[in-house]
Amino acid sequence: MRVLLVAINAKYVHTNLALRYLRGEINAIYPDVLLREFSINDRLDRIAGEIYEAKADVIGFSCYIWNVKEIRALIRQLHPVCPNVKFVIGGPEVSFESEEFLLEHPEVDVLVIGEGEKTFLELLNTWEGGEDLSQVSGIAWNKNGKIIMNSPRLESSDLNDLPDPYTEDEDFTGRLVYFETTRGCPYNCQYCLSSTFKGVRFLEPERFRLMFRQILKKGATTIKFVDRTFNANKAHALKILDIVREESKLFPDVQSIRVHCEMAGDLFDEEWMDYFRAYPRGLIQLEIGVQSTHKPTLRIVARPQNFEEWKKYVPVMKALEIPLHLDLIVGLPEENWTTFRTSFNDVYRVKPDMLQLGFLKVLKGSGLRLQSNRYGLVYAPDPPYTILETPVLSHGEILQLLRMEDLLDKYYNSGKFSHALAEVLKLFPTPFDFYHGFAALWNTNGWFQRQWQGKALFDKLWGFIEGVQEVSIREKICDALRFDYYLWERPNTIPDYLRLADSLETASKTTEDEIRRDGYWETLIPEIKKMDRRQWNRNTAVAYFTSDVLQVEGLPVPCWYLFHYQQGKVKAYRYEDTSQKV
């Protein structure tokens, strides 16, 4: 029996962990198993062609909110030309309301409900033996147009019963590789499907070590743990991170390895901070779901936390150069425009590396889906079931927040405008007010209707604040924006609005080359000794600023900066005029 497992990932770089578990579970008995990964950006006819030419007897699909539409279309397209193929689907998107799904899609033979490793193997054995499917627990199936719901499968209490998903010969260079050291979650968040499962199961750390070592040998450098709350058990989490550190340092390219963990902020303590202080820089990044700081909302969704208490750890982690992503959710019950504004400002002001603005997905099987009428949640009827409005947050307000989220990604999360934003935000009561006003300008001018290249984003930001009347404030914003412009890339020219006054412009042209040639740089940038003059000029830029952008306090001090561009990275160095040449 030839088995084909198909993943349609959200992006090309992603990998599908679930299907690798299935492959590991069945390949001892069914060695003729293939795994094919595509992305939702691939043409469906090309995907269908590759699936058809695989000539499989059983085709299994892993379904999520981002790919179920494409999978349904593929199965409908393949079914007429593959009349003898068994089509099997599974995954979180189809594990709820399964009977309705099969009634709407008679082309699907079997739907696997919940965890599928043991179920899928039993299903294949049953087909291979020519037996009736009624004894296979954990499935729903189509029997001559009638949908049969079999008894649910009892989950294994031991995560170590599962196979190693990464035994096959694969090249993970440039891919995002997913790992699982726990299943389940200690929380009961009503917007999340993890709330439908009780308890947390743990993978043996030493078993993880062997798996982690394998994927590093296969070129993996970016690893994301799918554990819903990685620090649910401190002892387990610390042991896993110990192994990450120990195994990573055995590889010559250790600097390129990074693991991404989703943690709960309210489980942090001083022991965690001490641990991070001793951890290698750049090896870990964290994602923390704040979701809201509005306490009535947090009570409704069963996710109580004290952001005011645990946010004190954010500066510590930032000082340790741990990339920190904080998440908010728009559209939760009882969160109106005013309280969401507060949540946004609360999180923005702790200055995470990324502030991810998500919009509530009213998922099948989730507590909020089951209570959607009670809370008046209006959501899209098709995947991904995005919130449209609530009794306290209108559809129009959600559209405004969607536009703000777009600009938040372009300007804040890109990290390309950090100095300019710091100055611009001083003109507004709160960060939320700036993004709201900026998004309104974009909408009025129709700018959201086009894709803008990076430099055009500078034009838009200047257009928003060019009316500032106070000269000193205007100059400081201009300096900060020009500083970011040089950090973006080495400019051949700069826009007129970022140019200095004529007198300063003339002065800069007469001294720029002299500053670039100063031997002062050899002490700061050792690479200069390996460059000839042409290479040095091509990889540097010099700019004059009326105030020191990096100066936190004090009066504005005019200064020069040299920007060094190398291998896609740029560093800025303040010129210290020890000879009084400038």
Descriptive overview:
This protein has 4 domains: 3-149, 3-Layer(aba) Sandwich (Rossmann fold), CATH 3.40.50.280; 159-360, pyruvate-formate lyase- activating enzyme (Alpha-Beta Horseshoe), CATH 3.80.30; 394-494, no CATH class; 500-574, no CATH class. Helix content is 37%, strand content 18%. The strands form 5 sheets. It has a 7-stranded mixed sheet with strand order 2-1-3-4-5-6-7, with helices on both faces. Strand 19 and strand 20 (569-574) form a beta hairpin. Helix 2 (44-53) packs across helix 3. Keywords: Iron, Iron-sulfur, Metal-binding, S-adenosyl-L-methionine.
Shape: globular
**Rg of Cα set:** 28 Å
Tally the helices: 21
Q: Approximately what portion of the residues adopt beta-strand conformation? A: 15-25%
CATH architecture of the largest domain: Alpha-Beta Horseshoe
Domain count, please report it.
4
Structural class: alpha/beta
Mean pLDDT: 93
In whole angstroms, the N-to-C terminal distance is 79 Å
Number of strands: 20
CATH topology of the largest domain: pyruvate-formate lyase- activating enzyme
Q: Give the % helix.
A: 25-40%
CATH superfamily of the largest domain: tm_1862 like domain
Q: Which CATH class of the largest domain is shown?
A: Alpha Beta
Biggest sheet, open or closed, and with what strands and sense? Answer: 7 strands, mixed
Strand order of the largest sheet: 2-1-3-4-5-6-7
- Given as residue ranges, the uncertain stretches (5+ residues, pLDDT < 50) are none
